[in-house]
User: Fold this.
Amino acid sequence: METRVALIGIMLKDKNSAERVNVILHEYADFIIGRMGIPYKKANLYIISIVVDAPQDMISALSGKIGLIPGVSTKTVMPKSC
Assistant:
């Protein structure tokens, strides 16, 4: 199956949502290339960047599941096809 590289940006307004996010990320661990978390305490915001190499439907499912968690926003970026 063809895979794509994508960057998924995740922003949490509620630190208590982090556990649910981590459970979902663990489900997709085989597709994650790298991860970076930044706590921005001044704004009470928690930012996570995930880089994945996965089939398009898996990327959409991952981002969609995380985006359904209350207090969590996601945005996915993929390079344009050549």
